Amino acid sequence: MKRKRLLARLWQFQNDNGYIPQVSINKLAQELRVSKIEIEGVISFYHFFHKEPTNKYIIYLNKSIVSEFKGYNNVKKAFEKETNCTFETNNKDSLFSLFETPCIGLSDQEPAALINFYPFTNLTPQKVRSIIFHLKNGNNLKDISSNPTSKIQYKPAKNKTIFFRDYVLGNSIKKLKNLTQNQVLSELKNVGVSGRGGAFFQTATKWTYCKNNKNKPKYIICNADEGEPGTFKDKAILNNLPGLMLEGMILAAYVTGAKNGIIYLRAEYKYLQPKIEKAIALMYKSGFLGKNINGIKNFNFEIELQLGAGAYICGAETALIESLEGKRGEPRIRNLFPTEAGYLNKPTVVNNVETFALAARVIELGSCFFKNIGTKISKGTKLVSISGDIAKPGIFEIEWGTTINQLLSIEMCNASEPYYIQINGPSGVCINQNEFNRKIAKEDLACNGSIMVFNKNRNIIQIIENFTKFFRSESCGNCTPCRAGNQILLEKIKKIKNGIATANDLDDIKKWNNIMKLSSKCGLGKYSASTFSSAIDKFRNYFNKIIIKNKGEIKFDLEAAVFDYNELIQNTQN
Amino acid sequence: MKEVSFKIDGRDCKAEKGQNLIEAAKQNGIFIPTLCYFKHLNPLGSCRVCTVKQNGKPIAGCTVSIAEGMDIEVNTPELLDNRKAILEMMFVEGNHFCPSCEKSGDCQMQNLGYETGIRYTRFPHLFVDRIVDARPERIVVNQNRCIKCKRCIEEVITNDGFKVFNFTNRGNQTLVSVDYEQEAKLSEAQAEHAMHICPTGSILVKGKTFGKPFGDRQFDYAHEGQNIPLTDIKKQVKSNKRKMRVATTSLAGCFGCHMSLLDVDLGLLDLIELVEFNKSPLTDIKKFTERCDIGLIEGGCCNTDNIEVLREFRKNCDILVSVGECAIWGGLPAIRNTVPLEDCLKEAYLDSLTSEEGETVIPHHEDIPKILNKVYSNHEVVKIDYHIPGCPPNANHIWNVVKNLLFEEEFSISYPEFKYD
Q: Quick one: which of A152, A251, A437, B197 has the most CB atoms within 10 Å?
């Protein structure tokens, strides 16, 4: 067995046994000729792998902030009551195992949960009761699961819609007969296609680097691990237009000369796997994958799919590559681009689902089509997923240059009293009402696709706490500022919640954010405190109300400090 | 190899093209501190202590390969402070009780702490309960002290090529775990090597922990000639010519800092000329009779009485100084902070060897101070103006700080006086 198959093998054991038993670990270690602790290190990195036995139904309830605001607590209680189990503990002799999990890409239908990786959306305590009742009665899980459709709430006028227009299989690939590699690149360059995962690195440049690399073989990797809480726009492509994404990968293979492609699909989207595999099979059948693609001699390309296993950090391209290689998903040090040394140290293009889909549309429609769509710098449209306190949560295909105000309007997501908006998920930025005239555009708010809208009644510190806890457990644990920094920030949050924080504490948070930004290894660490820090400036009034303004003052909560003692003495009196 | 020129902090430097920055800087007489870097390993970039700026962009120094014309910043105020901050993060994330650590004096992280002049940590200590794993054959892994630098993971390999250590879990739960089967294959020398490459006291070899006698360890006499300035201390200008008044107290401490104070020795005679002691165990004055210029606090707060006394000091003193580790972050009494109060008290009064069988009552009385849920540092309770680190702080260190504060004279402390292992 090759190391790169490790995650797939672990999934096998996980699915067969409900956990990965020690004997399997021993077996894998022997096969790979590595120490057992190395296998255990991989297993314990991914939260969908279990080392302890689980029961027939594994329930993962989403604990993202949108879920929290939409009734997560009651749903959690309902699950515990109906199953007679508690979360995060191994309940023997039960049908159920309960776990929490970060965003599962269903923010428009929260609270949501995965049961054996089948989605269940818009949960209420009543709904939970009925689900558990059905499962106890042995009803088929798939039959009772929700079938979450992509709620496409908005597309621009027909002549401006890029993604959600009719899809005809192979339209972009067929064009390759008359296009050289360089012509494909220049088409992409003309439109300014750039990485839609959020980094907005020029796609043509990335592909050119890989193309010019003499080293072989080369790999095309599709990053379908959209883990940024509040993002579910890639899911819409995987669900509605998987072929378009595959065509993008085939284009990349055509340009770079790669022979192999891999889709790294987050396990949270496992229910989409059959659909994607069907689309891949259709591509083979139609001659768009395999040998001599579309009749072009020696244009050979194959695509396979690999499942992640629950780790937000694997959305970072070098961590994703490590994960594909069967390792812990720790980001690599930044001295070489993946186009130089990526998957198995070979030249690799890693692009986001949306980027590949867009590339396919650019070749299909021609760069001229994009001329009058979007802004001067940001051409075309962008997929955004909007959730939170709005009437129409879901997927929006918007023209670049759309303002936040337009997004919030009745015609689009119809927000009620929007107050705090989180752009690009927890690692992004928050904006206040004064900034609602800003544009979604690369030159202003470069949005990766996640927009969460919260109204005035929402508790900002609850949002920040949710984000910080998310980063605390999703950090790869390797570098100090990220691993320790987020734990330390939670101490400040505790202080704020106890009402004993002063203006000094807020200054500290801003300074500590700078330290984390300066010294963390990867983007996760660098930006994990930036929302907290910027919220302090942007929602000054809110923070002024919950802290002590006098900088010199230090408030000590003596009552809280003796609470444990008083309780204990009272309980041991008799 | 081609020689290239580059700049560090504006200084012209030369090195081989592609050379590692840490090595290249060293050759040019510039020291970049590191905790995970090893010349013969691929750079790990995990500890982040060596963070520098390359052409204005922050990056871990150990991951930089020198190229022509590079502009590197190493010792700017921002980067120096950042380095200190990362070390402080390591100190608060683990449970580093240096006075009770076998590696003290031989510990790279501790040495770097001195070197960067850490007096107290800006971050709150986390006091997470961590295990000490003594199951392995030859070694003991003390998770309280691990900084996850990854050195052992990369470096300690059995003769047949198996890793002995590896990361397990992720996020704040990340641990360096041991493969017991592979560990058993290590030779004595290999196990000792593991202990030596560990930059803290996390990996110890059973029976070999005090292999080197005190005074003979790696950092015992390092930087002897070096002085540490007390530049962060603002002089207190007083117009009146009266004797300065000093108050002292010991809260949750061991009186060791007071003993150290007495070690000022003959200086004490000078001191008496210049200052008078008010409330202090030295004078046995129980209540403040006058307002004091300076209050020296030994020990942190573990009960309600400590809180009361500390607040009294803040009320009656112009300047308040935390003296010693316990005052600064809880110190040894704070070892209990990783254990819930209930377990502590039950262990002490109900389940101890000397307690009566079936004992259920934890002794308490309204006149006895209540025990706090954890030991607090003084600056969590009241505003503290200065911190004098040490366990105990050297007498000269205390003396010089007091002189700096009260008499507008500038003093520095010598490196050995700043160290306290």
A: A251
